[in-house]
Amino acid sequence: MLAFLIRRIMIAIPVLLGILALTFILVHMLPGDPATVLLTPEELQGDPDIIERRRAELGLDRPLPVQYVAWLGELMDGNLGQSFHRKVPVTEMIGPRVMPTLILSGTGMVIALLVGVPVGVAAALRQNTKFDYTSGVGSMLAVSIPTFFQGLIAIYIFSIWLGWLPSGGMRTLGISASGADLMKHLILPAGVLSAVLMGPYVRYTRQSLLDVLRLDHVTTAKAKGVPYWGVVTKHALRNSLIPLTTVLAVQIPALLAGTVIIEFVFSWPGMGRLVIEGINSRDYPVILAVVMITAVLVLAFNFLADVTAAILDPRIRL
Amino acid sequence: MIRDTGPGTGIDVDAVVEASIAAGEATIADLDTDEIVARPPRSPFRIAVHRFMKHRLALVSALVVALLGLMAVFAPIVAPADPNAVDLSSLRTAPSAGHLLGTDSAGRDVLSRIIYGARVSLTVGIAAAISAAGLGTVLGLIAGFTRGWVDTIIMRIVDIFLSFPSLIVILLLVAILGPSVSTIVVVIALFEWPTSCRIVRQMTLALREHDFVLAARASGSSNLRIMRRHILSGVMSPLTVVTTLLSAQAILLEAALSFLGLGVRQPQASWGGMLNEAQSITVLEGLPWLWLPPGIAIAATVLAINFIGDGLRDAFDPRQTR
Amino acid sequence: MAAAPQDATTAPLLSVSDLHVTFHGDEASVRAVRGVTWDIRPGEVLGIVGESGSGKSVSVSSILGLLPSPPAVVSGGPVTFQGRDLLGMSERELRAIRGKEIAMIFQDPMTAFNPVQTIGRQIAEAIRVHDGSVSRAAARDRSIRLLDMVGVPSPRARFSQFPHEYSGGMRQRAMIAMAIANGPKLLIADEPTTALDVTIQAQILELLEVVREETHAATILITHDLGVIAEVADRVLVMYAGKVVESTTILPLFQSPRHPYTLGLLGSLPRLDARMDTLFSIPGQPPDMARVTRGCAFAPRCSLSRGRAECREREPELRPAGVGWSACHFIDEMEQAARKVSGEVGMDIRVGGE
Fold it and tell me: Which candidate in A9, B309, C17, C123 could, as Cys together with C143 as Cys, close a disulfide (CB 3.0–4.6 Å)?
């Protein structure tokens, strides 16, 4: 087991470094000198040297590789840099946004699992029935209708037309924060987010279970006298859920992309919105920080998934 | 391992690969019987076409996409008005005889913009998918065929790309390089090639162990030749399925970009861009003709393409367990 | 339908009567079993021999209701076990019998066991599923004893190991242990040695013998290997294209076969002790079971038939032939045919003897 873990980590490290390097290069390709972006028109017309001074202040005059190494060093110290735009530490900007994003994406994923997996199981057990076809078409729809459109429709129906739920934001102004208020604001965005994930979850669960049900050991269990539900839960389900942990991990990038869009549509104060603002204002450190965090999260989740699979399936540990 | 799935695409690499291998073997088995004299062996392609025809949903979808394509190509003829013609006297008017789907905030005819919008979506979808598939195939073939450290490097690069939050980086790149259609195509392709690369690599790994490849090598064919003639043909079937599904993804990505205001720039008509207007509550609430049609257009197109992909996959899969 | 020979004094344990199994596919229906009738007495070893596709495994799986029911349709019958018709039973009633009164041993022990559960747990499951009052600990002890009985070394340690940690032979032993856990009256072994090395095969067959002696269970042994049959069987059924073509006791099968197919099988056995110039094989291929029409299914390949009309038009029924039964129109001509084959392969096959 230990050997397996070490091997897994060895694979992850170069990927991590690659991610960081690539991101760093990318962000520095952005046009629009952040120095000029931050100066007001009056200041620009005043002192011609002010641009140079600004750039020096922001550390933009040092060569690229040096900046990169310096940046990595800062990372080790837990310093993600200063936002060019708002002159506050990036950590301060990202900090308050992390929880909302986690709440949103976490809830979205949980809903998708709680609904998607049972539906997939049911569809497999009732193969070729109306339920199977309907759920198949449903998953197809969920994956084909663009997320932002689903969001807009959801807002239209539940917020504007029915007036049940708020159309955006995380809390209602003027009321003290409460769980119920949060729930009201969370349902719609998390619900739409879960729709994106549900499609694949239903599909994979169904396919995986169907594949396992055809295996020999299921017949053996039946021949032993194990009752139907025992066969399904103890011999089929558990085996079919193992590959699903990997699917979960692989869907994380999709989850994150969806979160960005949902945060935008629902004005949710999370990291996704932050990134878009950052791109519009050419705020390198912020963008870099968010991209890095997400990529590392993806890596971490993949790692977790592999470990979980190894725990559940003794054959993998070899 | 299901690891190889493209994010959010629902493409199960293993299943697609297995199906194609099984399909190929089924045909080889076909050849074993005495019937080879009586009936010419049906190539996998013919069998697949035959099975695709039986899939009604896929056929209808293919028809729909074909019509959309025609509409896009002949847009100038089909569209009732110039999509960029601004008419300041009729801003945000409801559907009427003159404007079947009303007008938008700049007085442009919505219907015409929908029709012209198809151009952007379909171009991006097809071009991005084909580029991604092309790049992925080349790299996948090399990785699968050569193995060794070349393979390892390519797969690590694939891992890196797949770990990236693609949407964010795409936004970034489009912001850097400017939002022209060709840029968007290239950038999207940059994030879609890993999926096809993995599939092609897996197929290659499987196929290269087959006897006919070993025979070719034994008779002195160069590696390149083997790759081209034997493996490429085997790779075609899963590749078509994946390319189809990738184009659906590309269309969704482009729409998202335009919706966020960071994609195809106004005044060019794009479905995602038209939905950008719906951000205001006034529009959302009172002017459904501005945002419902483009959204439905995207959904219908992507749905149709996905059904075609499904149909293709079923057509190539002899097991029919789905 | 004529019944297989039985000793009038001992009632059969399991009695199959006119069993039919058809698989309905999208394009065609396959008639895998086309009316078989046989029985087995307590403590007896019945061998069922046939090529792949002869219907031997399918007929036996259908008895326990193990075939997936949308494609498979089981008809005919009755299949009487201890006085009750298995085909008419509900799922619950069948479940009480599976693994307890009738147990199965499968061909590939690697895939027959659940790869993510320990072997011990799976054996214990077989016990506890039929007797809820057995505690975890008690089931564990019993399982360990069973593993020991079948010859698995260090059973206590092996209890907690996974299937992939066992060797092939050991896995099959474990499967046998699992099958006999509840003391079944009938053991069905479906190609138990096919997936194993030849040396291990002998060990497993020996084990099955020991098990039979200890438990007095009747055994149905399905195989395509005549050598295995020769080792252990008391009586043999030869199946071809979904029907029983010959049924007899063991020695007469080898010494005086009464059906051309059996003759062909025997003739095609490569032999070390006789000089063989050519390998004899039955020409042609087994029929496509989706398209079996009238007449004898073996006729196209039969050297005895020589294209005679009777063979092509009428399906032969099982008739008494020597001490056994055979489904052939021309049983009387078997002697001549046997002599011819003997000559070719140097084997001493006679008909009309014992």
Answer: C123
User: What are B161-219's pLDDT values in tens digits?
Assistant: 887 778 888 887 877 777 788 888 998 998 889 988 988 888 888 777 776 667 777 77
Phi and psi dihedrals of A57, rounded to 5? Answer: -55, -40
Question: CA distances (Å), A39 to each of A43, A52, A55, A286, in order?
Answer: 6, 12, 11, 19
Q: How confident is the model at residue C67 (pLDDT cuts 50, 70, 90)?
A: confident
Q: In this complex, is the C-beta atom of C91 within 8 Å of any C-beta atom belonging to chain A? A: yes
B25-67 residue pLDDT tens: 544 444 333 333 333 445 666 666 666 666 778 888 889 999 9
* Tokens matching residue B99: 């404007």
Higher pLDDT, C28 or B195: B195
Which residues in chain C have their CB less than 8 angstroms from residue A238's CB? 116
Within 8 A by CB and 6+ apart from C76, the residues are C17, C18, C19, C20, C35
Q: Which of B61, B110, B253, B309 is nearest to A146 (CA)?
A: B253
| DSSP secondary structure of A105-162 | HHHHHHHHHHHHHHHHHHHHHTTTSHHHHHHHHHHHHHHHS-HHHHHHHHIIIIIIIS
β C243-249/C102-105 pair status: unpaired
Q: Is C130 on the interface with A (CB under 8 A)?
A: yes
Residue appearing with tokens 């004299």? B37
Compare CB distances from B176 to A15, A29, A276 and report the shortest one's residue: A29
Tell me the nearest-neighbour CA distance from B136 into chain A, angstroms: 19
How many Å lie between the alpha carbon of B114 and the closest alpha carbon of chain A? 16
Amino acid at A155: I
Sign of CA dihedral A109, A110, A111, A114: positive
Q: Do A217 and C114 touch (CB under 8 A)?
A: yes
Q: Is B165 on the interface with A (CB under 8 A)?
A: yes
The contacts found for A163-171 with CB under 8 angstroms, 24 or more apart, are: A167/A266, A167/B281, A168/A265, A168/A266, A168/A267, A168/A268, A169/A266, A169/A267, A169/A268, A169/A269, A170/A100, A170/A268, A170/A269
Whole-angstrom Cα distance, residue B310 to residue B244? 9
Assign A315 to helix, strand or coil: helix
Global pTM?
A: 0.79
ipTM for this model: 0.81
Per-residue pLDDT tens digits for B11-34? 455 555 555 555 555 444 443 333
- Closest to B183 measured CA to CA, from B195, B171, B194: B171
- pLDDT tens per residue across span C245-304: 999 998 888 888 888 888 888 877 766 666 666 666 777 777 777 776 778 888 888 877
Q: How far is CA A189 from the centre of its chain?
A: 14
Question: Tokens for C97?
Answer: 């019998």
